[in-house]
Fold Bifunctional uridylyltransferase/uridylyl-removing enzyme.
Amino acid sequence: MTGLESQALGRLRIAHRRQSDELIDAFRSDLDPDRLVRGLCAVTDATVRELWSGTGLARGALIAAVGGYGRGEIFPHSDVDLLILTAAAPDPAQRAAIEAFVGGCWDAGLAIGHSVRTLDECVHEAAADITVQTSVLEARLLAGSRTLFDRMTQSLAAQRDPGAFFRAKRAEMRQRHVKYEDTPYSLEPNTKESPGGLRDLHVVMWAARAAGFGRRWNDLALRGLATVEEARALARSERILKRMRACLHIVAGRREDRLVFDLQAQVAAMHNLDRGDARRASEDLMTRYFRAAKQVTQLNAILLQNLDAALFPQVGGAPERIDPEFQSRRGLLDAIDPDLFQRDPSAILRAFLVVEQHPDLQGMTAPTLRAIWHARLRIDAAFRRDPANRALFLAILQQPRGVTRALRRMNQWSVLGRYLPAFRRIVGRMQHDLFHVYTVDQHILMVVRNLRRFALDEHVHEYPFCSQLMAAFPKRWLLYLAALFHDIAKGRGGDHSKLGRGDAARFCRLHGLTAEDASLVEFLVEQHLTMSSVAQKQDLSDPEVVMRFARLVGTEERLVALYLLTVADVRGTSPKVWNAWKGKLLQDLFEMTRRALEGEAPEAGSRVDALRREARKTLNLYALSEERYEQFWSRLDVTYFLRNDANDVAWHTRVLHSRVDTTVPVVRARLAPIGEGFQVVVYQPDQPDLFARICGYFDSKNLSVLDARIHTTRHGYALDSFLIVDPVDRASHYRDILTLVEAELAERLARGTPLAPPVLGRSSRRSRNFPIEPRVELRPDERGRHHLLSVTANDRTGLLYSIARVLSEHGVELSTARITTLGERVEDVFLVQGSELASPKAVLRLENEILAAVQP
């Protein structure tokens, strides 16, 4: 580089820095984020063009802005994403010119991220990688060949599948939400990536742009995908989030998108919120953020639903009527009368209850959500005094499924806070401590979620002891109610446990709970911190400590309830707070206290003990002594017994106890004890593709798997059981094929033949006329050791094998499986593990392949 060139680069660098500083100084005064990002973009454009002009590549190449820069948004410390496109592979001279240009960008002070591609390479990369496709979607020509740029955009547009693009971006968003715990209310949220952040807005606009629906919020309103009010709300929320992100970059002096504690006060000061109290300023700032993020999550849900309906119009079939007020439309609850909630506000609570009561409903339609949002102000003091509404609220808590989702949706749409004014006061409230990572309302809902997981079979593997206790607890909804109130008085001053007990007592009295139930709820709210404190801070080897705690608790029911609430509470503070040590301390205190309450009597029979006793009764009928099968039972853990009833345990024991260490597959079948079909149990040393091989055999025989329970023993053997039906010839020949299945399946497993391609059967007529949108979700479990794979799809022969085969191809091992068939719908949950699952891209690829495999 000559001295003159060096001087020119120096002047360019100084000019770029000076103009950028002037824009930042102006932003400090007016806090106009749009003026800032557009101004920084224009300054960067001018710098890039001047650098490019000296390359000599103008005819045969181009330079384009992509990503956020292509969108016209540059934040103070954002990367400058550039695409250098050439008509053909660059020759040595062109490569040298490109290298000089890239070096000049860095010398001029631009933090660039760049790629160099030919037109063919660009099209190929976009087809193979959704990230590249998204980046070039917003490409903007800066300099060079307009003809080449137009060829690129035309080729990419011709290649793009708007529907597939939409599904891929929605899957990416879901995966990103999982990473951030599915909540916008983290105490240190990422203004770009967290749920409710800028990226959620980008997803909507990317999908709309790919489909040709527009490039701005007003365009979506003109297309009927959003209302004018929603378009304005989106623009307002986007402006708030942009302002906060810009402030973060400025106060951090680097690219920083997280509203971390260290920077909140400084960002608040830039917002003129500093009144001499840094904590209060931080709270005011975060309240603004959480309100904007909440609105983004609301509108994101509505707009994605509308985009889905526009891209995938429902074919055939009218909405299915549920009751006089509601119908099912595309698997979503829809109010038949648009004015229902204004005319009858009680229908707001009924809507959430109906979704809980119908497993096939995945949510509510956009018009219904809008109507609930506009009618939320009808939930007033008179509404809360209405006995019918009080009964509806209790019914929502008492449902066997969907409680967590209902409460979260009620909070998201401001229904929960309207019904419980005390809860409204803690929505978005910060918790300034070293262990809570959520706002108070989100922590409370996380605790409810944790309690619910103790009651669900698919989560038994996470905390088997808690699941065992929850299975025997008579009124689980009282625990959920206590969880709702345990931190509801945070931020009022004074002891929040005692204040919360007062709130809970009033609720119980007004809602007609019995004195016994109310007493339990009040006790749990007031003492929700006690068990953790005793376990971690007092000497459990001191009998008086245990006796004192036992006297406080009083009964075993209260002990069980407090233990479950405590575990759920600790786990709901932060993913990093819970550990095995704390778990052992709590369980030790629980066991010691239970023995003290029983007067040191032998421990009362647990569910597992009761199940074993029942199984023994059956085994005695076959003259099997306990010694003969104790070795077999010693290889089975609590999870196995919780997932099987006594009848199945006795059958497995009877046919497998003499083959504990067999080296060859053992297959046994019997007629199903209840209902039609037959059961098959497979026992052999475990192997990665075993589940797929078993499913492949049933698929080859045109047999449908209604239920599968996959278990790995303590010594590494697979103990898999299946409930099988023949969808064509039901019940007439099951007894005749039991021996055939036993012999053929055992022989096939021993032979180890390669997996055959799946042969999918036809969906039922009902499924074809009322198809559901398949859903595939893969996320880490609570302990981070496994992943939970959830698949929802229309049922048909070969579906399970298709899923199992994809898992096998990716080397993903199956630990347990829960197959649930609801009429024409399957909801399968698999516990899987594998090294490939450590890569987010691999997880996304696996999700997409399974989604393709289950498409109708």
Observations:
- Residues 761 and 797 are 5 Å apart (CA to CA).
- Residues 278-311 form the longest helix (34 residues).
- DSSP finds 39 helices and 16 strands in the chain.
